[in-house]
Amino acid sequence: MATGKGKAKQVKGKVQETVGKVTGDKGQQAKGRGEQITGKAEELTEEARRHGKN
After folding, report:
1. How far, in Å, CA of 17 to CA of 29, rounded?
2. Of 3, 8, 33, 39, which has the maximum CB count within 10 A?
């Protein structure tokens, strides 16, 4: 199940990456990918905590 904060970061990162692609800004694309990875990590951490596997 997706968590709020982690999922929000993933969406934000996807938007950043897309804007970077449209504008040709490779730095923006990289920031967006990083944000997505951070969001996924937060989501997985929260999921593990919820299942008592921290």
Report:
1. 4
2. 39
